[in-house]
Specification:
alpha/beta; five-stranded mixed sheet; four-stranded antiparallel sheet; 22% strand; globular
Length: 299
């Protein structure tokens, strides 16, 4: 068997040296290991949830997966500290379309409840950042269940890296994992966390640094949310071209168009609204967001 694996590895290496072939390796999750003594490290968590729907106010979590990992200050992943995986039985049957998407059935979650104390212990004071591949979704759900997540900095690996600019086909986790040289057959939320770990460990050719380093750099920067309230309907296309998104007001935030920009771009954005949208000297509502507030339903 060992000879077979050695032969396969040699064949894969030979194929990879050719410009005509590219070999993907099955993802094997990294085993948990203790932190390296004497090496400066920080601790993060990769998180994924499966839910009964998209509404964080009423839908329920049916699975929570987390991988706790250590990384160096320059964003290089050192190793896995621990993993967490649990089902949760919702108050009503899982919708058929959710089961079709997640492959989680009522029978799988029956009798299960995620232990709040276990979650709080896992997300301890050592954790400095929580990363999800759709933090705008996962943060809202987890904060509703476990307030410990409100105190953490968050980063979004799907939106806070321009993956296409670095040669990837898109931001879907499967595309990114393939681009990093792996494939996996995901069945559980924790499997996607292990996949995301390898994506973030992948060194981007353009920078020579792992993707995690770029993500952390972006997440640390404050952003400004600009609200374009009470705009004329016929200007919606101009706002959409500028990158504005519509909020329908159902979440307690303004019923309005809004956009997130870097601090240095704030003056230009206000100038755009004054000259192209309102045609007068207005002062739009502006919120300053950081990794501690970004993606949260509290904002």
């Amino acid at each position: 068997m060992l000879r077979d694996l050695t032969d396969l590895a040699a064949m894969a290496e030979a194929l990879n040296r050719s410009a005509d072939f590219r070999v993907l390796q099955r993802l094997v999750p990294r085993p948990a290991s203790p932190p390296i003594i004497g090496q400066e490290c920080r601790t993060g968590i990769l998180l994924d949830t499966e839910t009964t729907g998209l509404d964080h106010g009423k839908d329920e979590i049916i699975e929570l997966g987390m991988v706790k990992f250590d990384y160096t200050p320059d964003g290089r992943i050192v190793g896995v500290r621990d993993t967490f995986s649990a089902f949760n039985e919702p108050s009503a049957p899982i919708p058929p379309d959710v089961t079709a998407l997640t492959r989680i059935t009522d029978e799988m979650v029956a009798g299960h409840k995620i232990d709040d104390a276990a979650v709080n212990a896992f997300v301890d004071d050592s954790v400095v950042v929580v990363i999800a591949h759709n933090s705008g979704f996962d943060r809202k759900f987890t904060e509703r269940y476990w307030p410990v997540f409100e105190q953490k900095a968050w980063a979004c690996s799907a939106t806070e890296i321009d993956w296409r600019a670095y040669g990837f086909a898109g931001a879907q986790l499967g595309y990114l994992l393939n681009g990093a040289g792996f494939f996996h057959q995901a069945h559980r939320a924790v499997d996607d966390c292990h996949a995301l770990l390898e994506v973030l460990a992948f060194e981007l050719p353009a920078t020579g640094a792992p993707a995690l380093a770029l993500l952390l750099e972006t997440a640390r920067k404050p952003t400004m949310r600009v609200w374009a309230e009470q705009t004329a309907f016929e200007l919606k296309d101009a706002l959409k071209r500028r990158g504005y998104r519509w909020n329908d007001g159902s979440d307690g935030r303004p019923k309005s168009w809004f956009v997130d920009v870097d601090e240095v771009a704030l003056d230009d954005e206000i100038a755009f609204l004054r000259t192209q949208i309102y045609m007068q000297d207005v002062e739009p509502a502006v919120q300053r967001l950081t990794a501690f507030t970004r993606f949260s339903s509290r904002i």
